[in-house]
Structures are given as C-alpha cells and as structure tokens.
Write a structure and sequence with these properties.
Elements lengths: L1 E5 L3 H12 L3 E5 L7 H5 L3 E2 L3 H6 L3 E4 L4 H8 L3 H4 L3 E4 L5 H13 L3 E7 L12 E6 L1 H6 L1 H7 L1 E4 L6 H28 L5 H28 L9 H17 L5 H18 L8 H4 L6
Parallel strand pairs: 1-2, 1-4, 2-3, 4-5, 5-6, 7-8
Antiparallel strand pairs: 6-7
Helix pairs in contact: 9-10, 11-12
Amino acid sequence: MRVTVLGLGSMGSALAGALLDKGVETTVWNRSAGRAAPLVARGAREAATPLEAVEAADVVIACVLDYDAVRGVLEPVTGSLEGRHLVNLTSGSPEQAREMDAWARSHGVGYLDGAIMTTPPGVGSQDMMFLYSGSEEVFQARREVLSVLGDPLHLGEDPGVASLYDAALLGLMWATMTGWLHGTAVVGADKVQATAYTPIALRWLGAVAHFITTYAAQVDEGRYPGDDATVDVQIAAIEHLIHAAHERGVDNSLPELLRSTMLRARAAGHGSDSYGSIIEVLRRPAGN
C-alpha cells in the first residue's frame, strides 16, 4: 500500500515516521521546504507538489493546520484525488468534518475523519487510540495501514463523531490534569512532593473510573439514585478542599467552579441524587 502524508509538523512527521518504521511506502509533502529531510533520510519520498503527492498514493493522510488548509491543498488536485481514499487527521469541529466529507464525496473520494488521541511521541503505539468516523468501507479497506499509527477505533458512519469525541475527551483530560495539579499544589504547600502524591492520585482515579461507569448508566436512564453519595454530601465535602487550599494560599478557581455547579444542581432539586445528576444542569447553560 502506498501512503502519502500531507503536512510535516510534529504530528505529521510522527505519522510518516511510524509508517516508515513498518516498511510502508511513504511519500511526504509539506508547504514549507526543509521539513522532509529527516524522513527522506529514513526512506520517504518527497513530493515537490500536492499533485505529485496525491498521485503517488493509494491513501492520502492529511495532518495540517485546519480544514481550510486541507481544502486549499487538495482543491486544485481533485481530478487526481478521485478514486483514492482521504484520511483527514487534522483537528477541527464535527461540522467541519461533515462538510469535508460532503466535499470529498462530491469529488468521488472515499473519506475518513480522524482524531489522534496522543502526542507525537505516542504515534505508532497500540496503547494509543486513533478515532475514526465516516465510511465503514474505507475504514475496513485501510485498517491495516491505520493500525500502524495506533489502535484504530471506528465510531460510526457520521463523519463528525470522531471530532466530537476528540473535543469531549480533551475536556476530560484538561479537567483531570487541572484537578491533579490543584491537588498537587495543595499537598505541595505542606512539603509533599508531586512524585509522592501522584501514585496515590492515580490509584484514586481507578476508583473514580468505577464511579463514572456507574453514573454512565444513570445518565442514559435519566435516573440518579443517591445510593453512594448525594450531591448534598459532595457539597459538604468540597468545602473541606476549598478551606485547605485557601489556608495554603492555593488558587481556588477550579473547586469554586465545581461547587457552584453542585449548588445549581441542588437548586434544581437534585440534592439527594447522585453526582451523575449534575449532567441535568450541564445540559442547560447557567441562567437558562
């Protein structure tokens, strides 16, 4: 299988490198000159133009700045792109992904939209997820080469779903890491090293994963029995965190935001429900 990678930033270069490591015939193209040299030294072929890059491949993988950039590169070469498969690993919104899919189909191009759930050093590891949505036929036809990049998961025929999951999962990541950093600052104020606190925090996340699994079923059912810990109990508990952080001079913006959301849930009648009931207020912006 012949693959072309369009875009040689840190991520695009990592994608091309993973393909080369597995012996995949790889062509690369980048708008700015000079980025391809290390990959060429490893066996890649550098295309001089997008047309040359497209014509060299059965599968074109795009990883550029944004969706407008993808269109800008490929619009002039749609005649050569017809009949090939385009895998777009450029970050964007679900709406942009759906528009890109419609554009690709109008030009006879099989399309998959994707989201890379790792940083460049993780590319090539089966521990890292690559999310795809769009054509099941394209996904199955190209699964072997997609598996070179990471563990490929197809989320359905709607091309916007991978981008939607990407946004949601990044939100989970940022919330989790910021919560960990806040906790690290709190214990660090009492001279606890981050490396001492973190193994305990990671073990705690295992319990949190169990809570999330329980609440997921409740969310789908729309019922939130407060069998484990109610919103009222959580409000009382978070006061201890806010107090501890305040006494140590640690910023409380995050726990105060969480407390305000819990208080909204209680005001909406969910005080005796589980923490999962907070989704009911998250589904409605504050003030609505």
